[in-house]
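DEPOSITED CHAIN:
***
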Amino acid sequence: MVVNYFKQEEFDQKGLPGSGSKMNNAFIVHLNELRRRCGFPLIVSSGYRSPEYNSKVSSSGSDGAHTTGKAADLLVSHDKAFIVLREAFAMGVFTGIGINQKGNQRFIHLDICDITESPRIAIWTY
């Protein structure tokens, strides 16, 4: 696996060093390709989450996409958010895309949950 743009620790849950090692390899490869296509850095605000932590911060509970290492939230806004979305859609590999482009915490959520794991292919806003 060749990953040029990310380091494992970028996906660590805050206060849980090394947890980024639980990220799904295929997801990281897709994210790396997305970064290449965008041509600018993608800052990960949330990668792996333990089931306990995910229950506290997400409506997906203890088994959301972040707990399987198949999701990340990227800090991106304005014209760069448009580029990330355009390239993510063009790649056709992300099954969940969440968009928050209001306020001070602007981000895009991307995941590759299998239909059998999470019965949806969806786009949503926060």
About this structure: The beta strands are 43-46, 71-75, 96-100, 107-111, 122-125.
